Amino acid sequence: TQDFAGLKALVTGGASGIGRATAELLAARGAQVAVLDLDPSSVDKPLLGHQADVTDDASVRRAVAAAVADLGGLDVLVNNAGIGAQGTVEDNDDAQWHQVLDVNVLGMVRTTRAALPHLRESSHAAIVNTCSIAATAGLPQRALYSASKGAVLSLTLAMAADHVREGIRVNCVNPGTVDTPWVGRLLDAAQDSAAERAALEARQPTGRLVSAPEVAGAIAYLASPLSGATTGTALAVDGGMQGL
Ligand code: NAD
Questions:
Q1: pLDDT over 60 at 244, yes or no
Q2: Ligand 1 mean position to 21 CA, how many Å?
Q3: Whole-model pTM?
Q4: Which domains does the chain have, with CATH numbers?
């Protein structure tokens, strides 16, 4: 189906994992898609790669302006760039807190600020933020990461309220454990990565990790006119992990 025909989308963190799967799905559904990433060199046509660091406001403004110029407008912003952190409050120092909050929370603020004037011109404007079940699940060893995603959830609700009357919808997805290069890096760092993967899969109610295209599907739904009356929601994509 071509439910994104004529729509123009920008995906941050779109060179890898969930962002990449989202950019590819939106393009397959007919959207024109630009990707903003630290390193967009792996992004191929028809996706349009733009280099930016979401912690650098000037680079975000430049990349969003260039992407909007390439696309000829903007209907959909997927705020997806993010980084992880492990540990309790005793394990991460102030510099790590500032870094993760800068990427995961302020990064979304910067791209949204740069994109809003363009989204206001659209008649199908939607923002989808990649949050996490960590926002509400109370996961062990994830104090900083959970706090950053808790902020993303609150930010999503606040933005939804602020912009609904302008015709801009704002929702988020809450993925569980998704099989992306990020999780691959965590497994590679383990002593026995095959055993660690098996343990991780055993913790999933479905017995397997969530796939990046499955998260992309939820993002695409929230970005598409099919969800035109939905704003201020968090859609779990966690294989049933929530509530366990
Ligand atoms: P990933 O590492 O595969 O991809 C993240 C992308 O973001 C990379 O291309 C990276 O270059 C980009 N990025 C990172 N910092 C950036 C910055 N400062 N500026 C611009 N781009 C930057 O990770 P992923 O697993 O696809 O994660 C994507 C999002 O999904 C993140 O927000 C993450 O918190 C969230 N998430 C992931 C999981 C999971 O299990 N993988 C679960 C829940 C939520």
A1: no
A2: 12
A3: 0.98
A4: 8-178+211-237 (3.40.50.720)
